[in-house]
Amino acid sequence: MGVEHLGDFLREALFVVILIVSAILVPGLLVGLIVATFQAATQINEQTLSFLPRLVVTLLCVLFFGPWIILKLVEYTENLYKNIPFLIS
Question: What tens digit of pLDDT does each residue of 55-70 get?
Answer without folding.
Answer: 999 999 999 999 999 9
